[in-house]
Amino acid sequence: MSQEYKHYSVHDFDKFDCLKVSIRVYVVLIYILRGYLVWLMSVTNMRDRVGIIQWLYPEQSLFFLSLFSGLIGLFVVLILSLRRPNAPQWIKTIWPHCRSILIIALLFDYLINLVGYFQWQLFSPLWLTVQGAIVIFLILLCYNSDRMNINLREFPEPLPEK
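and the corresponding structure tokens:
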């Protein structure tokens, strides 16, 4: 067990002696939550509130579907924010499955792109291929991360008072 941690320094651990969550989780979340990021950018743009959304999501349904797929990502953000000692049991139960939840969100998001392509002809085949490559790359990032494997196995426990 201690051999797993030999590549990490003291700075790689949080205040509960758990390995800090892998940056790969956050990269995947940014990709999944990009609909919400676009929405936030459009809300903060005082000149043209819907221009950014219309430019990136020409079909309004596609934007709402992106927000819907982002709900899965928001759920993972909720789990991440509640991951601490004395967390409710349902958080402890769901935490080891976060990688699977992220992958489901990625695949659902790609399915939305496929619907946009076949239903509304919104994307070029090249764009759809790039999206598929990004999804495959992010899935591989999730499965090839030793740090994420360790993250999913450990859960913060209360430390004894000194």
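(Above: one complete record from the training split.) Residues 2-153 form one domain.
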